[in-house]
Amino acid sequence: MIKPTIEHITTELLDVPIKRPHQFSTTKVTSKSFVLVKVTLTNGTVGIGEGTTPGIWWNGESVETMKLVIDAYMTPLLQGGDPSEIEALMQIVDRRIRGNTFAKAAIEMALYDALGKTYHVPVHQLLGGQCQSRIPVRWALASGTREGDVDEAVKLVSSGRYTAFKTKSGKERPSEDARRNVYIAEGIKNHAALGIDPNGSWDRLTTMTWMDAFFEAGIEFLEQPLPPADIAGMAKLTAMKRVPVMADESMQSLHDALRIVQADAADIFSLKIHKSGGMKNTVKIAGIAEAAGISCFGGTSLESSIGTAAALHAYGSILNLDYGSELFGPDWLADDLVEDPLVMKDGCILVPDKPGLGVKLNEAKTAAYRRKET
Ligand code: MN
User: Fold this and answer.
1) Catalytic annotation on 147?
2) Closest by alpha carbon to 146, among 173, 184, 175?
3) Is 24 buried (19+), middle (13-18) or exposed (0-12) by CB count in 10 A?
4) Which residues lie closer than 8 Å to 349 by C-beta, 6 or more apart?
5) Which of 8, 82, 274, 319 could form a disulfide with 105 if both were Cys (CB 3.0 to 4.6 A apart)?
6) Which CATH superfamily is domain 6-122+362-369 in?
């Protein structure tokens, strides 16, 4: 067999509507934007990848910056390359382009999809093999009101769709925010588990003051309460041994993971394929966590079925995913970009087992949601 090489790479921007407006700490969104990457190999195989972020507030990248960086800087480095050497190719990209991990993850995703399709194996086999075939999913409550959030959680539990939740916070003052979260946790205590995610918007003193109340309310974990750089503060909260502390924005790279282990600054890592620059780096970070006795949680950047499939291949390849995932992106979007949607069953999402990412692009849908040039 003649080895295929990378022939060309294309990108396009898509805007997909969501089911209900979503309140983050700094913005409220009504649609979700994606950069869709297609890598075509000389054997005719097309691999697809997706870049998306919660918003430019999250780490400074947007779908527009990803498109530019991929088109102008990454594509020339990759054309003619051997897709069976993905990690070596990504090292070339890393040495010439600093940061831009979300754009790198989108490219890596398309390369793995193309390679899996070429070898006729699902991507989890290329990442080291499958550890789990189904992963629990947690839904994010972000209706905008505390009563609305309790209502939504109770309804979802009784419908059998979800049994675990997360709240997004950070819109109000930290103490008000903490009070709201205790209200929601108390409201759903007998039905479901709740984790809190203030996206780094709280301060040390407020968080410490509320730790006992969070514990009493049965809150399952506290995700990134403090600003990403405040590792020492995260270490203080972790040392309190009340509610498990999860690192998200503080823990993006392999080096961040090591630094947090050395500082004893988290009980749980939130993994995300985009923030860490791809699936392979995510699996490596889980290895650091495993060695340190830290649990993992399968985070999301609110991907469509394409990026969610990639996350499932990565998370399905690790052992210590003790807190399940929040891979609810496809369920949150009002429409799907693939012809064979991911399967949710009893609060779990199934890891795809067809070659590559295991999802087939719906060309009509992507054409319908393609951003109109203005
Ligand atoms: Mn988070």
Assistant:
1) no
2) 184
3) buried
4) 134, 135, 137, 308, 312, 325, 327, 342, 343
5) 274
6) Enolase-like, N-terminal domain (3.30.390.10)
Active-site residue, 189 included: no
Q: Is 361 helix (H, G, I), strand (E, B) or coil?
A: strand
Of 171, 226, 235, 168, residue with least CA distance to 197: 168
Catalytic residue, chosen from 32, 104, 168, 171, is 168
| C-alpha to C-alpha distance for 59 and 190, rounded to whole angstroms | 36
Task: Label each residue of 22-38 as H, E or C.
Answer: EECCCCEEEEEEEEEEE
User: What type of residue is 161?
Assistant: R
CATH of domain 126-350: 3.20.20.120
What residues are paired with 270 via a beta bridge? Answer: 297
In angstroms, rounded to a whole number, what is the distance separating the alpha carbons of residues 328 and 141? 11
Question: In angstroms, rounded to a whole number, what is the distance separating the alpha carbons of residues 114 and 40?
Answer: 8
> What is the signed CA dihedral for 128, 129, 135, 138, rounded to 10 degrees?
10
User: What are the sequence ranges of the domains in the chain?
Assistant: 6-122+362-369, 126-350
Burial annotation 206-233 (CB, 10 A radius, 16+ → b, else e): bbbebbebbeebbbbbbbbbbbbebbeb
The Å distance, Cα 248 to ligand 1 centre, comes to 5
| Residue 351 DSSP one-character state | P
What pTM was estimated for this model as a whole? 0.95
Tell me the pairing of strands 134-136 and 268-271: unpaired
262-312 pLDDT, tens digit per residue, is 999 999 999 999 999 999 999 999 999 999 999 999 999 999 999 999 999
Nearest to 169 by CA among 142, 147, 206: 142
Distance CA 350, CA 220 (A): 24
- Kindly report, residue by residue over 291-301, the tens digit of the pLDDT: 999 999 999 99
- Which parts of the chain fold into alpha helices (H)? 56-59, 63-69, 75-78, 86-96, 101-119, 123-126, 146-158, 174-188, 204-216, 231-239, 254-263, 279-292, 305-315, 329-332, 363-369
**What's the 273 CA to ligand 1 centre distance in angstroms?**
13
Beta-bridge partners for 136: 348
